[in-house]
Design a protein that fits this description.
- The chain is mainly alpha-helical.
- The protein contains 14 helices and six strands.
- The protein is elongated and about 65 Å long.
Length: 354
């Protein structure tokens, strides 16, 4: 269902992001499985390698893609809602809309409210969600292979570096951070060169985008900045850094809100099956036996790993959306505009459709 909703959007890049995230995440999960099996333990009592060898569960996929899916539907709705009111010369090939460079102030007469205005910025939220998810996956799966013991990220706020067992929620290493940056860089590269950006290559497409994003035709033709190759590279870099930041925020949330349970006998971290919570008290245990077998090392038993991933995606997406709003001058500027006139004249091109 998630894949179908991604494919429902006319921009194929979002479906590609889902596929790349799933395939790359599965690939890094399989790296050195035998070594990982000796580091952590499965919640079912067996080797954790048996869990990592299986595809991700539907719940795990949903936790990492739900936020992006919501914004995809939001952006599609706004896009077609705007085009439903478009002049007739813009109706043909209405899905051929590109992403304008974010510098032009919208027109208040065409933006009925901030809700519609935010819809046009939804692609940035979608990208941010996947960048954070990819960074977290790469960081977790490759960081655990680091030769150094991870540092509990929350201990840094106390002015010390508390070492914790590998696999502990909130544990960070240099290898893990750099691996997360690699994961988000992949997302950044795909979006920078896969998104239909307004770069001056198609006059018709850009004029449709001008209407959907409520920019004036005159401003588009004379003043609007187009995406250049350098802009795309910078954009990819920003996405990579934003995703890496998301990985660190995920570690913070994991250290605070997710319980890291360890086996008392071995000291190994126990991983929940399918991203679920790890029970300290197991069903069928004799009273008191589990207290000797398992204990919570750090964190509060509030969220599962899936819950942390979902919250991280939401935080990074909303953060990206707010950053873009401020970049464009804030909510007031987006809804009051600069007094430019909306597009009302037909395009004059050799490819115009009556």
């Amino acid at each position: 269902m998630t894949a179908g909703l991604h494919a429902y959007h006319p921009w194929g890049v979002f479906f590609a992001l889902l596929g790349v995230f799933f395939l790359s995440g599965t690939s890094v999960t399989k790296i050195k499985q035998a070594q990982k099996a000796n580091i952590t333990t499965s919640a079912t009592g067996g080797s954790s390698v048996s869990d990592t060898s299986h595809p991700r569960t539907a719940t795990q996929v949903m936790a990492n893609s739900l936020v992006a899916t919501v914004f995809i539907l939001f952006h599609r709705y706004v896009m077609f809602e705007r085009l439903s009111a478009a002049p007739s010369f813009l109706i043909a090939h209405s899905t051929e809309v590109c992403l304008p460079y974010p510098t032009v102030t919208p027109n208040s007469a065409s933006y009925p409210n901030l809700w519609i205005a935010l819809g046009n910025l939804a692609p940035y939220a979608i990208i941010a969600a996947y960048a954070a998810a990819a960074a977290d996956t790469f960081s977790s799966e490759l960081g655990i292979l680091s030769s150094e013991e991870p540092i509990l990220v929350t201990s840094l706020f106390k002015g010390r570096m508390q070492r914790v067992p590998k696999g502990t929620n909130g544990g960070v290493t240099v290898v893990g951070i750099l691996s997360g940056l690699l994961g988000s860089s992949i997302i950044g590269f795909i979006t920078a060169f896969g998104l239909p950006m307004c770069d001056g290559s198609s006059d018709e497409t850009e004029k449709r985008a001008a209407f959907v994003n409520v920019y004036s035709l005159d401003r588009l033709d004379q003043k609007a900045k187009r995406w250049t190759l350098q802009d795309r590279m910078v954009f990819a870099g920003i996405i990579a850094l934003w995703g890496a930041l998301g990985s660190i925020i995920d570690s913070l949330l994991g250290a605070w809100l997710q319980a890291s349970v360890v086996e008392v006998r071995t000291g190994r971290v126990i991983e929940g099956d399918g991203g679920r919570k790890v029970l300290v008290v197991q069903s069928g245990d004799k009273k008191g036996d589990n207290q000797k077998a398992r204990k919570i090392l750090v964190g509060q038993d509030i969220l599962s790993n899936n819950g942390v991933n979902l919250v991280t995606g939401l935080v990074m997406s909303i953060g990206a959306l707010l950053a873009m709003v401020m970049w464009l001058g804030g909510p007031t500027a987006m809804t009051t505009g600069a007094g430019v006139e909306p597009i009302t004249q037909p395009m004059v091109t050799s490819k115009s459709v009556p």
